[in-house]
Design goal:
The chain is α+β, with helices and mostly antiparallel strands. The chain is built from 16 helices and 18 strands. A hairpin with a 5-residue loop joins strand 8 and strand 9.
């Protein structure tokens, strides 16, 4: 990178925040799963929206591409360079202020570099709740969450990340700043521009701050680990619980026995909540007003009814918050416990989850003898993490080398059921080519037209999405 350009960056944001040495930049150039790695010419760490705008203006003048990066916890390679051209990584980590919190309007305005747990804690301090909850909430950042439209365990009740956003502040590809930090619940004055940037993975502009919608903090929660015969049993149980308990069901997670075993091996301090093994489990949580005892009693009654009707085999209801936390630790351990395999983040209609599992399992077994699937996820909103490996590390490594063949089986099954190849992790580099197989030509062209309109030079996170 020309010295005068580095000098200009240093003048804009401070020399200490322009990183070029390998020991300083290495972590920014590799994704969390170490699947994608490429070097950029530097890493810049602005501390304000004005500094972000200054950096992007300099990049536009030098035709240098910008790779926005938050906590770098994504699974699709969307937050790291491609190495295909001149690039720099734009880290938002120093932009980590809570700008405003209004408990009457139930809004919180935060900068893009705020870690999710920080946003949750700020809401909690005001007696409110920010309902997005992810396993990586101690390290993932708000800008990345919004740029990928992250989901998490509470989508069933509260919706994806985009449904928590009232307004955005965005730096565009020419360095201009769109001030859209509105906190209105109703604003019918033309196109809802913020929706273009939510889920765009930084390909249209850089989100620097967001006005978020807060929710009342539930006064009680009740959590249960439930054994079921099959994914069909889980879907039937969900329907029965929703009929009985309504919207207070905040999470309904499906876990295969193989996933539970992997978590127990990975973290020996964990324990099987039911002792005896079962083929499938559900981790369900209710949140509502009232007392823990009353909510627990409602859950217990609903599960007793489900047991009588054959919807479940057994269940353990947490008797305290610490017991509930222990159940959630199992679920949160699963991604890391089966880290190395062929991963898929897919979605189908809830009613079609049993068909997805049945059809994909049969097709994979026929194509790859000895295959083992690690299936878990947010069955309440149709999103499964369908991960595929083998019995040992060497065989799994060989299967990973055949990733494209495995993907074809899973994605074709998903497509036949009217589903999506990406539910909450985005497209990034990982699924960019696959996207072209599953989107209609007109839909892809409309996406390209939007990209060209907002980013005519193609500088914003190139090589991702479209």
């Amino acid at each position: 990178m020309p010295r005068n350009f580095l000098d200009a960056l240093a003048a804009a944001i401070g020399a200490a925040n322009v990183l070029t040495a390998g020991r300083d930049t290495a972590a920014y150039f590799t994704d969390w799963r170490r699947q994608f790695h490429a070097a950029a010419e530097c890493v810049v760490r602005p501390a304000s929206t004005a500094e972000v705008a200054a950096v992007i203006k300099l990049c536009a003048g030098e035709y240098v591409a910008i790779v926005p990066q938050g906590g770098n916890t994504g699974l699709a390679g969307g937050s790291v360079p491609t190495g295909a051209r001149r690039e720099l990584v734009l880290s938002l980590a120093r932009m980590n202020r809570i700008r405003a919190l209004d408990a009457i309007d139930d809004t919180l305005t935060a900068e893009a570099g705020c870690v999710l747990a920080q946003v949750q804690q700020a809401a909690e301090s005001a007696g409110r709740c920010f309902p997005v909850s992810l396993a990586a909430e101690g390290s993932c950042q708000l800008g990345g969450i919004l740029s990928t439209n992250a989901g998490g365990v509470n989508v069933l009740r509260y919706g994806n990340a985009r449904e928590q956003v009232l307004g955005l502040e965005v730096v565009l590809a020419d360095g201009s700043v769109w001030q859209g930090l509105r906190t209105l619940r109703k604003d019918n004055t033309g196109y809802d521009l913020k929706q273009l940037f939510l889920g765009a993975e930084g390909t249209l502009g850089v989100i620097t701050a967001a006005a978020l919608r807060l929710r009342p903090r539930p006064s009680a929660s009740a959590t249960a680990w439930i054994a079921v015969d099959s994914p069909l049993g889980a879907v039937r149980l969900l329907a029965r619980l929703r009929a009985r308990l309504g919207e207070c069901i905040s999470a309904f997670e499906l876990v295969s026995h193989r996933c539970l075993q992997a978590a127990l091996v990975h973290t020996p301090a964990l324990a099987n909540p039911l002792g005896a093994p079962h083929p499938w489990y559900v981790l369900a949580e209710l949140e509502d007003s009232g007392t823990f005892e009353s909510l627990q009693a409602r859950l217990e009654a609903a599960l007793a009814e489900g047991a009588q009707l054959g919807d479940l085999r057994d269940a353990a209801i947490a008797a305290s918050q610490s017991q509930a936390a222990a159940l959630w630790r199992i679920r949160e351990t699963i991604p890391e416990a089966q880290f190395a395999n062929v991963k898929h983040d897919v979605a189908v209609a809830v009613s079609r989850i049993p068909a997805l599992v049945e059809q994909a399992e049969a097709a994979l077994a026929a194509r790859f003898p000895g295959v083992q699937s690690f299936i878990f996820g947010h069955v309440g909103d149709g999103n499964l993490h369908y991960n595929v490996g083998m019995a040992d590390a060497a065989a799994t490594a060989a299967l990973i080398d055949r990733r494209e063949e495995v993907n074809r089986v899973v994605y074709d099954t998903v497509a036949a059921l009217g589903g999506s190849i990406s539910a909450e992790h985005g497209i990034g580099q990982l699924k960019r080519a696959e996207l072209a197989r599953h989107k209609a030509p007109l839909e892809l062209e409309l996406m390209r037209r939007i990209k060209r309109t907002f980013d005519p030079q193609g500088l914003m996170n190139p090589g991702k999405v479209v």
